[in-house]
């Protein structure tokens, strides 16, 4: 059976997943190249789930009353967007997503401010990144503004699930899966875009506290020419066992490395940042450059833009390896190290285990009891103030 796909089919697939292809060029056979908010149909749930006290909320557990879903086929294009009661999906056991990981997803949040208003943070940027991931898998693209409007309506309908308080939010999980019921490594002729929502508290149970990272020299998260810069489920499953091994050693997450020089790539599921005096004696905030192995994080981009606007130190997208970190630690040039991402916002780091060495990272020298460095705390507060509406910003959209 697999022979029927053959070399020509595989070559055809390699052409179809080129990220540079435009929506219209990739899916010119489709009758409808996107879905529209104006066509949105809503079916309200006849029952309401009980609200969980916010102190008991857990990231990724428990969902709202409704979900957004839109079907797509290669011959017919996009169907009608619908908000429907939250339900289980019905898929063929042969669905491509189950066998070849043809799926991608995003993570965004809705926040309730002190003024009672609900705000979304850079949701359209998440939709743009999702298009990049989806097109790489030869799955359909869509109009990012229209998708964001549909998700915004989902938040409006389920607004009672958006908890109050700093650190609490409604986590949004837009997802695209290949649904064709046929085996064989090939582009799928049908797909489903859907979004579910999870009321959540802080990502880490310990709260905003510094963590320990294990610089793993054996396992690799991503490589040049791979999919490290796309938000695919396949990028995350491979880290499950290495992360468990790191936890057995007493660390919270992995500091992912690549190459013979052990270049830093990402910290767990976060982008990595180091604040240090670099080898030229310059105060610098550095994060690994987007070389194809790094996910272009929305929080990462926000930090870079904020820090450059401050103009108080050099901000660099570059490279740094573990020998440089070890040497900088010995010379007292490291000021802070932290991870950044949508789920946690900022995760301060207090120690990195590397090649038998425990590299201790300073936190706040003026407050020995602090669990974060001054810069990480400042960035965290600045972003949170924007997300909760205390600081006006073009990055937020109010859900009326």
From TrEMBL:
<feature type="modified residue" description="N6-(pyridoxal phosphate)lysine">
    <location>
        <position position="231"/>
    </location>
</feature>
<dbReference type="GO" id="GO:0009082">
    <property type="term" value="P:branched-chain amino acid biosynthetic process"/>
</dbReference>
<keyword id="KW-0100">Branched-chain amino acid biosynthesis</keyword>
<dbReference type="InterPro" id="IPR001544">
    <property type="entry name" value="Aminotrans_IV"/>
</dbReference>
<protein>
    <recommendedName>
        <fullName>Branched-chain-amino-acid aminotransferase</fullName>
        <ecNumber>2.6.1.42</ecNumber>
    </recommendedName>
</protein>
<dbReference type="InterPro" id="IPR033939">
    <property type="entry name" value="BCAT_family"/>
</dbReference>
<dbReference type="Pfam" id="PF01063">
    <property type="entry name" value="Aminotran_4"/>
</dbReference>
<dbReference type="InterPro" id="IPR005786">
    <property type="entry name" value="B_amino_transII"/>
</dbReference>
<comment type="similarity">
    <text>Belongs to the class-IV pyridoxal-phosphate-dependent aminotransferase family.</text>
</comment>
<dbReference type="InterPro" id="IPR018300">
    <property type="entry name" value="Aminotrans_IV_CS"/>
</dbReference>
<keyword id="KW-0663">Pyridoxal phosphate</keyword>
<dbReference type="GO" id="GO:0052654">
    <property type="term" value="F:L-leucine-2-oxoglutarate transaminase activity"/>
</dbReference>
<keyword id="KW-0032">Aminotransferase</keyword>
<dbReference type="InterPro" id="IPR043132">
    <property type="entry name" value="BCAT-like_C"/>
</dbReference>
<dbReference type="GO" id="GO:0008652">
    <property type="term" value="P:amino acid biosynthetic process"/>
</dbReference>
<keyword id="KW-0028">Amino-acid biosynthesis</keyword>
<keyword id="KW-0808">Transferase</keyword>
<dbReference type="GO" id="GO:0052655">
    <property type="term" value="F:L-valine-2-oxoglutarate transaminase activity"/>
</dbReference>
<dbReference type="GO" id="GO:0052656">
    <property type="term" value="F:L-isoleucine-2-oxoglutarate transaminase activity"/>
</dbReference>
<dbReference type="GO" id="GO:0005739">
    <property type="term" value="C:mitochondrion"/>
</dbReference>
<dbReference type="InterPro" id="IPR043131">
    <property type="entry name" value="BCAT-like_N"/>
</dbReference>
<dbReference type="InterPro" id="IPR036038">
    <property type="entry name" value="Aminotransferase-like"/>
</dbReference>
């Amino acid at each position: 059976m697999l022979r029927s796909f053959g070399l020509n089919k595989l070559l055809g697939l390699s052409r179809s997943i080129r990220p540079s292809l435009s929506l219209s060029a990739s899916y010119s056979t489709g009758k409808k190249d996107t879905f529209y908010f104006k066509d949105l149909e809503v079916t309200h749930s006849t029952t309401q789930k009980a609200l969980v006290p916010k102190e008991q909320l857990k990231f990724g557990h428990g969902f709202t009353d409704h979900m957004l879903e839109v079907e797509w086929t290669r011959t017919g294009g996009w169907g009608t967007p619908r908000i429907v009661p939250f339900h289980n999906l019905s898929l063929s056991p042969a669905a491509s997503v189950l066998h070849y990981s043809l799926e991608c997803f995003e993570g965004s949040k809705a926040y309730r401010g002190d003024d009672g208003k609900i705000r979304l943070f850079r949701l359209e940027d998440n939709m743009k990144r999702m298009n990049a991931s989806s097109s790489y898998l030869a799955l359909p693209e869509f109009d990012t503004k229209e998708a964001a409007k549909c998700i915004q309506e989902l938040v409006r309908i389920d607004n009672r699930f958006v908890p109050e308080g700093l650190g609490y939010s409604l986590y949004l999980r837009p997802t695209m899966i290949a649904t064709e019921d046929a085996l064989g490594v090939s582009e799928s002729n049908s797909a489903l875009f859907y979004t579910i929502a999870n009321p959540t508290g802080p990502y880490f149970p310990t709260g905003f506290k510094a963590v320990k990272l294990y610089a793993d020299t054996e396992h690799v998260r991503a490589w040049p020419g791979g999919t490290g810069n796309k938000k695919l489920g396949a990028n995350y499953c491979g880290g499950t066992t290495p992360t468990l091994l790191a936890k057995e050693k007493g660390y919270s997450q992995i500091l992912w490395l690549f190459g013979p020089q052990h270049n830093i790539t990402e910290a767990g599921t976060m982008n990595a940042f180091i604040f240090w005096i670099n080898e030229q004696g310059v105060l610098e905030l550095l994060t690994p450059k987007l070389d194809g192995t790094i996910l272009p994080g929305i929080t990462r981009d926000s930090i870079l833009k904020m820090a450059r606007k401050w103009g108080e130190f050099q901000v660099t997208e570059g490279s740094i390896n573990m020998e440089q970190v070890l040497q900088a630690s010995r010379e007292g040039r490291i000021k802070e190290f932290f991870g950044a991402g949508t789920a946690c916002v900022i995760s301060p780091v207090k120690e990195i285990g590397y090649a038998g060495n425990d590299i201790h990272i300073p936190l706040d020298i003026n407050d020995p009891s602090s669990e974060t460095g001054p810069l990480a705390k400042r960035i965290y507060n600045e972003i949170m103030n924007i997300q909760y509406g205390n600081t006006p910003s073009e990055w937020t959209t109010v859900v009326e």
